[in-house]
Amino acid sequence: MSKEQIRCRDCEFLKCVGTSLKPYGSRLSYYCEHKNQEYIRRYFDEHKLKKIPGFVCFSIGMYYEPSIKTSPPWCPKKRKRAMRNERQ
Questions:
Q1: Can you name the residues that pair with 25 across neighbouring β-strands?
Q2: Which of 2, 35, 54, 78 is the most buried (most CB within 10 A)?
């Protein structure tokens, strides 16, 4: 079985939530809107992450695409895959 990476860019739960104006231009903010927000909040609390729960990344410069290449460690889809692999 080939191990395919989970990519936020292709995920239906990645949402662009707004812009952040900077002196050199603007950039977009991307968040995960997965239905399991409780898991995401709990992960952020347990690992003492200081950013907003569910925040994935900003856009690349003036391009309107997310800067993340794969997915963050707290991704709910990664959790499901890990749980499925443990059962096998």
A1: 22
A2: 54
Q: Which residues contact 62 (CB under 8 A, 6 or more apart)?
A: 25, 26, 27
The stretch 31-50 carries a mean pLDDT of 94
Query: Do 29 and 55 meet the contact criterion of CB atoms below 8 Å apart?
Result: yes
User: Sheet containing 55-58: which strands, arranged edge to edge?
Assistant: 14-22, 25-32, 55-58
This prediction has a pTM of 0.77
State the CB neighbour count (10 A cutoff) for residue 21: 8
User: Computed over its alpha carbons, how large is the radius of gyration of the chain?
Assistant: 14
Strand duo 25-32 + 55-58: pairing? antiparallel
